[in-house]
Specification:
2 domains; five-stranded mixed beta sheet; globular; transferase; tRNA (Adenosine(37)-N6)-threonylcarbamoyltransferase complex dimerization subunit type 1 TsaB; transferase activity; ATPase_NBD
Length: 232
């Protein structure tokens, strides 16, 4: 069995499963510190199916982009477990996992996470019978630039995000009827989708190579660099 975890947004999720099924899945939408909830969540799904650490065959974790603190907690926990249990580790993009919610759609799938100041972490995929083909790699975009890029295609675009309400008006104004902003559960990363991606991917060769995908500097580091440049 593979244990999968996601801490890249305020929604925290854990799943346990194999190639045949998701045996247990747990998600919480509470805006609380992931460091207080992740290990209890892991313990919960393990106990749900009476699994022991010796039953695990791998650890899968979303490495971002997303919340700096959240991603760091998930990556550190996954690496610690993989190292101590001597298990393979799977590095999964939070945006790819989110895009999986619409992998059977027709058109483009654009998962994004708000990065403040009019910016988003986003990627664009083309859905093809359950498979996702990367059209634009994940990166930090100005939302206005992302929408201009998507406006150049005639395909419908499915936007997936917990932050959809912040950008819905702008999205619909630029793309009109081609924009599908969705509702409900499609905006969150599903732990079972992390499992599916991991099972279809090779593990990372060296656990120490698994690092967060921040895509931009943390605010504290930006300020530190500015201060250093000023001192010089």
């Amino acid at each position: 069995m593979i244990l999968a975890m996601d801490t890249s947004t305020f929604v925290l999720g854990v799943a346990l499963g194999d190639a045949e099924t998701v045996r247990a899945e747990w998600t919480t939408h509470e805006k609380k510190n992931h460091s207080l909830r992740l290990m209890p969540g892991i313990d919960h799904v393990m106990k749900t199916v009476n699994a022991n650490p010796s039953d695990l065959e791998g650890i899968a974790v979303t490495t971002g982009p997303g919340s700096y603190t959240g991603v760091r907690i998930g990556v550190s926990t996954a690496k610690g477990m993989a190292s101590s249990l001597r298990l393979p580790i799977y590095d999964v993009s939070s945006l790819e996992a989110l895009a999986g919610n619409r992998r059977f759609a027709f058109g483009l799938v654009c998962p994004f996470i708000d990065a403040r100041r009019g910016q988003v972490y986003a990627a664009v995929y083309e859905a093809d019978d359950g498979h996702l083909k990367t059209v634009h790699e994940e990166r930090l975009w100005l939302m206005d630039d992302l929408l201009k890029t998507l406006a150049s295609t005639s395909l419908p675009v499915y936007f997936l995000s917990l932050d959809i309400a912040k950008h819905r008006e702008n999205i619909e104004q630029v793309l009109g009827a081609r924009a599908h902003t969705g509702e409900g559960m499609d905006g969150r990363i599903k732990p079972g989708e992390i499992l599916r991606i991991a099972l279809e991917s090779p593990p990372v060769a060296n656990v120490h190579e698994v690092v967060p995908r921040y895509l931009q500097l943390a605010e504290a580091e930006k300020n530190w660099r500015k201060a250093q440049a000023h001192d010089e």
